[in-house]
């Protein structure tokens, strides 16, 4: 049975084991991941016993905007509605019930998010990527 927890109190090491399955978070460090968890407003995690098998997190002002980040389900556990449950728990979360607009970016999973009510028709996003600035911004 999969259990869902509502807390950012997760061992960063376990999260890195999920991140390393992706091409967008595979190079994250332990220190940075610990810092990221400490500054996350809402985190939902999925567990098979002691094993972390799914994760998603939110940064928000709790009223106007919330952004959803780092949604991932362990490859061995995909297609079992775990990702769907993580998103639904975020959208129904009591601390987020007044949030007007949830935003996320995805390159490959539009179908997954569309099935959960997300639309790509309303907003377009722009990204400023520190690693891609030429010349690099330094102090
Ligand atoms: C995206 C991801 C989180 C989905 O999690 P999951 O647990 O495998 O998905 P679920 O089993 O909850 O799927 C829920 C529904 O979405 C559908 N779905 C899943 N992936 C889909 C896709 N790529 N395109 C269209 N629909 C999809 C499922 O068929 C299911 O539909 P149903 O309820 O009608 O049966 C998971 O595939 C993942 O971790 N991918 C790799 C990490 C990643 O790159 N994440 C980036 C997210 S922006």
Describe the structure.
The chain is an alpha+beta fold. The chain has one domain (2-132): Aminopeptidase, CATH 3.40.630. The chain has four helices and five strands; from the N terminus they run E-H-H-E-E-E-H-E-H. It has helices at 12-19, 30-38, 82-91, 110-114, and strands at residues 2-6, 42-48, 51-60, 65-73, 101-103. A five-stranded mixed β-sheet has the order 1-2-3-4-5. Helix 1 (12-19) crosses helix 2. Coenzyme A (COA) is lined by residues 22, 71-73, 78-84, 106, 109, 111-112, 115.
Cα Rg: 16 Å
Strand composition percent: 15-25%
Identify the strand order in the major beta sheet. Answer: 1-2-3-4-5
Q: What spatial form do the alpha-carbon principal axes imply?
A: globular
Mean pLDDT: 95
CATH topology: Aminopeptidase
Separation of the first and last Cα atoms: 50 Å
Bound compounds = coenzyme A
Total of helices: 4
